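User: Second chain of the day. Same drill as before.
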Amino acid sequence: MALAIGPVRLSIVVERTADQPRIEHRLTRGAPTPTQIREKSEGGERRMVNKMSQKNLETILLDYLGAIRAGDEEVLRDLLDPHVTWQGLREEWVCHGPDEVIETLEQAVELRRDIVALEFIRAGDRVVMGVRGPAIDRIDGEALGGQIFNVFTLRNGRIFRIEDHRLRGEALRSAELNDDARWR
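Assistant: Same format as last time:
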C-alpha cells in the first residue's frame, strides 16, 4: 500500500510472521526523509516543515493504527502517555490512563466497523483523524452520520489526549486549524 503525504510517497509493508504481523514503513522513489521535506511559504521562501508535526502524524498513522490492527497492547501502551485522557462525544464519556483507553479501543475493534475513508491532518502537537464509513452511524444512541473525528494531542512522542468530534469543523477548530485545512 502506498500513501501520498505531501511531496513524499510513503510505503507501508505488512509482513506476516509466525508470531504476528510486522508493519514496516519507508520512504520510496528517492523522496527526502521527513526531516528534509520542504514546502513553500506564502512569501515564496523555502522553509523546513516542523519535524515534530510530521513525526506526530507518523506516530498516529503508522504506529497507533498499526498497533490497533495487530492487537499489540504493549506497543499501544508505549504510545500512550501514563496520564492520557480520551474525551468522548459526551462529557461523561471519558477514559483516564492507558488501561481505560486500551479497554475502550478493544471494545471498538470488536465492532469491526466498515471504514471507507480516513483523513489525517497534522497541526503541530496535534493530529486530526477523520473516519468515514456506512457502519459509523451511532455510538450508544449518539448519531454520527457515517463519520467521526479524533483530535490527538502528543507530548514527547506519546499520545497525551484524544478528543472525539461529530463534525470535521469542530475537530479542526479544536486543533486550531482553519476549516478548510488547505484543501481545494
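Residues 1-49 have pLDDT under 50 and may be disordered.

User: Great, on to the next one.
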